[in-house]
Design brief:
Blueprint (H helix, E strand, L loop, with lengths): L12 H52 L8 E5 L4 E5 L6 E2 L7 H4 L9 E4 L3 H9 L30 E4 L15 H6 L8 E5 L7 E3 L13 E2 L14 E3 L2 E8 L4 E4 L10 H10 L3
Parallel strand pairs: 5-8
Antiparallel strand pairs: 1-2, 3-4, 4-7, 5-6, 6-10, 9-10, 10-11
Length: 281
C-alpha cells in the first residue's frame, strides 16, 4: 500500500503565527467595538438623565409657577428686615446635619454661615441632591443626577451636572424666582439658553455658605461662567468620532453635544459660554 507523504497533519510555524495574528486582530476589534458600544450607551444614558432632570424642573415650574433656583442662598428682605432661604435644585446642607428650617424658627438673623456648599462626591453630595427643590419631581431617583463618564468613572460620584446661574445663585441673588415672562422681558431665546450642563472640573470639596462674593465654585450645583472672573466651562466627557463632547440641555428641552469649537463659527469655550449663559446669540 502506498502512502501520500505530501499531506501534512500539522500547521507550520508561519501558519500558526498567521492564525495567532488574525485572532489577535479580531480580539482587538471586538474589544474596541465593545468599548465604543459602551461609550454610546453611556452617552444615551447621560442624555436621558438630563432630560429627566429637565422634566423635573418643568414639573416644578408647572406646580409652583416659577423655575427652581440654580443654587441655594440667603435673601435679606430689607422691607421687613427678615432673612429667607432660596433653596436650589440641588441644595446646600446644614453643618450640624439637622433637617429643621432655622429661618422658620428665627428669620431676624442670618443663617447662611450654618450651611455648606458641597461637591459632587460622597454622602454630602447625596444629601444635597435629596434635599434639593426638584428631588420629588425627579421620582426621587438619585441616579438621574450623574453621568458614568464623568471623571472617567472615578470617585463616589453623586452629581455631575450644574444649572445656569441665571436662575439664581449666591452670586446672582434674585428677589423673585424666574418665571416664563422673564424670557420675553429680557429678550432671551429659551432654545439658545443653556439650562443644565455637565461639570468640567473634577475638583471637589466644601465652601462656607456665607461666602457670597468669593470666586465661582467649580464643583457645586451652579454653573457660573462669569465674564469678569475665571470661566467655568462645560464638561466634555464623551468621545465621539475622535473628539470629546459635552452635553448641554437648553431651557426648551433640546440637547446639544458640544466640543471646544463645535459650531460653524468656530466659537471657543469663552464665546460659547457667554452665548449659552445669556441665551443671546
Amino acid at each position: 500500500m502506498k502512502h501520500n507523504h505530501g499531506w501534512r497533519s500539522a500547521f507550520t510555524l508561519i501558519e500558526m503565527l498567521t492564525v495567532t495574528a488574525i485572532i489577535a486582530m479580531l480580539a482587538t476589534a471586538l474589544v474596541s467595538g465593545l468599548k465604543s458600544a459602551q461609550r454610546q450607551a453611556h452617552t444615551a444614558l447621560c442624555q436621558a438623565r438630563m432630560k429627566n432632570l429637565h422634566q423635573a424642573c418643568m414639573n416644578h415650574l408647572s406646580d409652583t409657577g416659577y423655575y427652581p433656583y440654580a443654587g441655594s442662598y440667603e435673601w435679606l428682605d430689607r422691607s421687613y428686615q427678615t432673612y429667607q432661604e432660596r433653596k436650589g435644585w440641588v441644595t446646600w446642607i446644614r453643618k450640624d446635619g439637622k433637617d429643621t428650617n432655622p429661618w422658620a424658627e428665627n428669620n431676624k438673623v442670618a443663617h447662611a454661615k450654618e450651611y455648606l456648599y458641597v461637591g459632587w462626591d460622597g454622602e454630602n453630595a447625596l444629601r444635597s441632591v435629596k434635599e434639593g427643590s426638584i428631588f420629588k419631581y425627579a421620582s426621587r431617583d438619585t441616579s438621574a443626577y450623574f453621568c458614568k463618564e464623568f471623571n472617567e468613572g472615578k470617585g463616589d460620584v453623586r452629581r455631575s451636572y450644574a444649572m445656569n446661574d441665571w436662575f439664581g445663585s449666591r452670586r446672582n441673588k434674585l428677589w423673585r424666582p424666574r418665571q416664563l415672562r422673564n424670557f420675553q422681558n429680557d429678550g432671551i431665546e429659551p432654545s439658545r439658553m443653556g439650562y443644565i450642563i455637565e461639570l468640567q472640573s473634577t475638583e471637589t470639596g466644601v465652601t462656607q455658605g456665607d461666602y457670597d462674593n468669593s470666586k465661582p465654585i467649580a464643583y457645586d450645583s451652579v454653573w457660573e461662567p462669569d465674564p469678569n472672573m475665571k470661566k467655568e466651562r462645560y464638561g466634555i466627557w464623551h468621545r465621539k468620532s475622535g473628539d470629546l463632547h459635552g452635553h448641554v440641555i437648553f431651557v426648551d428641552g433640546h440637547i446639544e453635544s458640544l466640543t471646544a469649537t463645535t459650531n460653524p463659527q468656530g466659537d471657543d469655550y469663552q464665546t460659547q459660554n457667554t452665548k449659552i449663559r445669556t441665551g443671546k446669540h
